[in-house]
Structures are given as C-alpha cells and as structure tokens.
Amino acid sequence: MYSVSSKLLGLNALNNESMHVPRPQNLVVILSDQHNPNFLGTAGHPVVQTPNLDRLAGSGTRFTRASTPCPICVPARASLATGRYVHEIGAWDNAHPYTGSPRAWGHVLLEQGHRVAAVGKLHYRSDDDDNGFLEKIHIMNVVDGVGDRLGLLRHLDHERGGAKKLALDAGPGESTYTEFDRNVTSTATEWLRTRAAEPDEKPWLLFVGFLMPHLPLISPPEFYDIYTSNPDVRGGNTAPQERLHPWIDHLTRVIPYGKYFDDERRRKALTAYHGMVSFLDHNIGLLMETLDDAGLSGTTRVIYTSDHGEMLGAHGIWGKCCMYEESVSVPMIMSGQDVARGATNATEVSLIDLYPTILESLGAENPVPASRYGRSLFDFLGRTDENRVGFSEYHAVGAMSGSYMIRRGRWKLVYYVNLQPQLFDLVSDPEEMHDLSAEPATAQIRAALEKELLAIVDPKAVSDQAFSDQRSRIAELGGEPAIITKGDFGHTPTPGEPVTYS
Predict the structure, then answer these.
(1) Of 62, 75, 101, 283, which is least packed with CB atoms within 10 Å of its CB?
(2) Is the pLDDT at 378 greater than 80, yes or no?
(3) Cα 320 from chain centre
(4) Does the reported pTM lie above 0.70?
C-alpha cells in the first residue's frame, strides 16, 4: 500500500534564508546541448569516459536531481536566461526564440558594471537583439531569426524530415558541429587568456555554449574508437509499442528516429553518442587547463549543465521532447571557492535556478523580487531540501497537447491535458516502465502531486494559450501551406553553413 509522507505533502521545508554568502568571483558557465546526465563517469556510468567533468565534480558539488524547464532547445535557453518558466514568457517552441525580453541575468550584470561575454550556441533570435551580453563571439542562433517553423504545426500527424538521414549518418567522422565546438573552445580559451592579461575591476562572466552531444550522431574518430569494441555500449530499455501512452505514440510518429535503426545502425549511433560526450569532455578539459595556466582558477567558479537530455532509444524514443528522465533531466555541477568539494546534492534544482545563482556568484544585486521558483544553488550547499519539486513543461513539435512534469522525492507525475496522466515510482522503477496512475493505491499520491502542479500552472489554460500563440505565429509566417511548402531543415546549421530545406 502506498502512502503520502509529510515530505511529499510539503511539510518541514527549509528556512528560506541562505546559509551561504559566496565571495564575489568570476564565473564560467558551460552549457552543452542534449547531454543525458547518466552519461558521466562521476554519475556511475560504466562505460563513458569523462575525466574532466569528473574532476570538476570532484572539486565541487554535483546536483543529482536537476531538470530542464522544457525538454527542447529554444524554450529551455530562454528560461535559463530569464529565470522564468516558459509559460510565463511565452517561449513555447523552437519558433519562439528569446528576443532580449524579459530581462536576463546578463542585463543585470551589465548594468552593475560586470563584463558579460558569450561564445558559441545561444539559440536566441539574433545578435542584433540586446540579450544581455557585452561581447558575442562565434554565436549560433536560430535559423533566419525564426527557427523551426514546422514545429508550430502540432496537429500534423506525419513524419518530420531528417529522421532517416540521422540513422544513415550515425558513426565516426567530422561534422560542422564538431568543427563548431573546436572553434568555440579555441575562442573561449583565447578570451580567458586575454582576461588574465587585462584584469577587470569587477568579476566577469563567460558563457560557453557547446553543441555536443546534440544530433547528428557523428563523433570524431579518435573518440568514437574508444568505444567500438566495448560490448556494454547500449541505450535505454525500449517499451513494447502497445504499452506506449497515446501522447508518446503521437510523438514517435512525428519524430520517428528509431524507425530507421537496425541493430548495426543503432550500435553506431550509441557508440557515436559515447564518443561525442567524451569529445565534449575533452574540450571542457581544455577550458579548465586554460584557467589553471592563466592563473584564474583561484578566482573563477565554473558551472556546467545542459539544456536538456537525450532519450537514446529508451521507450522507443530518440532525441528529447518528452518527460521521461533521460529527456527532462540534466547534469548540474558547480565548482570553485565556497562550494562544497566532492559533494552530491539531491535537491530538486532547475535551469531557472541559475539566474539567482549567477548574480550571487558575481556579487551582483538582484533587483527582481525573489521568485517563488528560482533559488540560488548556494542556498542548498551542504544540505538537501527534500520538499522542492521539479517542474517542466512541453508545448512544441509532436505535442498533441500540453504536457507537464512534477517530480518530488521518489514520485513523478506526468500530466497531459485531456489525456490520462502517468505516475512513476522512481525508486522501484527508475526506467519508468510501470505507470501507476490508474492504481487505487496511488490515488492520494497522484492528488498531492496534481495539487503541486496547480500551485505552479493552470495546465489547460496554458496549453490553450500556447496553441493560440502558435496559430498567431503561423499566420505571421504566411500560413500553414507556406510553412509546409518551405519544408524542414533538420538540425540548426552552424554560422555560415547553408540552410538546406527538404
């Protein structure tokens, strides 16, 4: 018989006052793309090699229950910038990119005299927008300042382009994405050396946006070859098709990556993902080495995270866009002065928590009243708040209705507007293979989690608003026929790379 504990019902909350007041220091924020947090040596992965991220975790704190506000690129990055959930700012999908409004943490830092620079992927609308950076170098934004037009047509129930090509291309090699990340690394390391030679009066922030390990699944050969003979290279368990939730079934028809994987191609794709993670780790290692060599390590903190995860075939899904753990969870590591070393923390944290964390780390005043959601990660160092909830939402490509996640303790509710929810016990069923939502014994738990959800959002009203805003955006772009005629460009091209529609 399942019961509802006082922790699940929200009792015994931590005092809201921070116990940690960090000294102002420089900060490097590293954001990767599509990194499943299980793929870290320090997280106990038996195969993948991430020595540099492991060392970073060893010198700091790894948050083991971190989540994205939305498991797709553009909305997640807008939430990270603003410290607000996507329904608060209307960042519904990959065709609603961040425009510089509402204000980001970068705006606050610049106004208070801090240098704020970005290198790499932002996935905002345009460099012409005032989006909170003094310097924008080698930046990747959405295509044509618009992004993914086809993703607005959520009612369509046919396959998106690019799925077959993903399967055929998977394996060893070089791509524009691997080239981009090498350039990001060299640009960021040069920026750090310049800052060491020309110190600023106030702490600075460098945002580094890598593309790895985002699709396409192409790994530099020297990293791919690490895993070619390892029999333990594998993805998640695949649920039988007949057990798929209707919402998930629709998603997998629209984005059917798995349809084109036979055993050999699947093996190549998984091997490539392992290699891409190690390639990412290598580049992060070069950044850490530069901090050491330039004498910046003692005055610079580092935060590493990702915009969302990657399913890698679990439940028959490749990519993200859903609320399973592989998609909605992200790695989160903070290292440096005033951060507990070699620690793990099981507090539910989110990308929105980086807004207050960044300001506090640099010693900047936060002019925005404390959000009921975002909290500085410094507040949780040395202790775990077991009463915090993890929240995420999704209103983009392949979503037949708005979907929402509430995660607290061992329990996780996935709420779909107008559809049966899913309820998982993450302790007894970490792979989320057994939906307990219809069991009478879990009714009280489900009701408690739904109450938590309603305290954050009105699910139906927000879902309706997303559809309404997307209809308006479709009209702005010339209507549905024009969007369909223009076609699909697959993954976002790198700066200077031609945009190819099909």
Answers:
(1) 101
(2) yes
(3) 10
(4) yes
